[in-house]
Q: What sequence folds into this?
């Protein structure tokens, strides 16, 4: 925000638009980089749903994105494949119409496991959100080897309602590991075995800023990446945040800022392909949703 270009400033002045000078509540640096996918509300890949809820990268760098009608629910799951051309704002195209999937619930977060309980690739969707739609249930969405969507089943977690869940196949020395979060609590689970038992509460006092809502999380070999979005209590100068924790919930980096642009942009999830991380942004007021690179 502070690095608005002189060209943009001159343009803003020339058309009489005030350039905002209000400082954010925290010493944030904008870490949202180039846009890799722009999804207008008119996109057939959203089937009339305007709220981006969760996103994860699956087999072959495909993206899976949940869209809903917000508090009215009615979620769909969309699958996006690389279009093979330029790495730009249309880097993926949707593979056919999205699938109506009521069993996703609120669909706040998506995780990916390449071999869930030895039965092949699967997505795992949290049905609950932080407060408005609490749920102990996650929905397993089985995938074929090429990533197409198959049967669903619901699993109840013993840790209570959660807002985020992720899996890393490279964590724990390659044995794989899950993480789940709600508010200040972080649980982990070994990569093998049923999700109905075997969870460990590793921290109940995660670092966080106030006036934000839990959103999707991502796991990598050594870290758990948490997104926190603006909510109804956030001041209009407030930002979204990404928190990088270690697997014990200790702080690695806690001030990764994603601008909210006067509460228009709401971070919903984070995922990665190789070493490149992406953030999913639900944009309010009729603006196109967006997937952007998280910059170093
Ligand atoms: Ca979300
Ligand atoms: Ca996620």
A:
């Amino acid at each position: 925000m502070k690095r608005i270009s002189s060209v943009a400033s001159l343009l803003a002045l020339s058309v009489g638009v005030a350039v905002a000078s209000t400082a954010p509540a925290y010493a944030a640096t904008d870490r949202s980089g180039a846009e890799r996918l722009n999804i207008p509300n008119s996109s057939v890949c959203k089937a009339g749903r305007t709220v981006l809820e969760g996103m994860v990268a699956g087999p072959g760098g495909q993206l899976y994105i949940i869209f809903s009608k917000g508090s009215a629910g009615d979620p769909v799951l969309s699958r996006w494949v690389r279009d093979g051309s330029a790495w730009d704002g249309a880097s993926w195209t949707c593979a056919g119409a999205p699938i109506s999937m009521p069993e996703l619930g609120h669909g706040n977060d998506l995780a990916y496991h390449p071999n869930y309980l030895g039965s092949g690739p699967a997505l795992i969707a949290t049905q609950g959100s932080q407060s408005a739609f609490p749920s102990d249930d996650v929905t397993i969405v089985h995938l074929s080897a090429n990533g197409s969507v198959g049967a669903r089943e619901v699993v109840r977690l013993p840790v209570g309602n959660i807002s985020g869940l992720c899996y890393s196949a490279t964590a724990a020395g390659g044995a794989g590991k899950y993480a789940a979060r709600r508010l200040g609590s972080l649980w982990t689970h070994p990569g093998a075995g049923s999700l109905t038992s075997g969870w460990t509460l590793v921290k109940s006092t995660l670092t966080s800023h106030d006036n934000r809502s839990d959103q999707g999380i991502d796991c990598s070999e050594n870290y758990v990446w948490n997104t926190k979005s603006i909510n109804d209590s956030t001041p209009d100068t407030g930002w979204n945040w990404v928190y990088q924790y270690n697997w014990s919930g200790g702080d690695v980096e806690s001030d990764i800022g994603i601008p909210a642009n006067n509460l228009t942009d709401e971070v919903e999830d984070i995922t990665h392909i190789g070493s490149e991380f992406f953030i999913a942004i639900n944009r309010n007021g009729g603006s196109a949703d967006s997937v952007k690179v998280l910059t170093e």
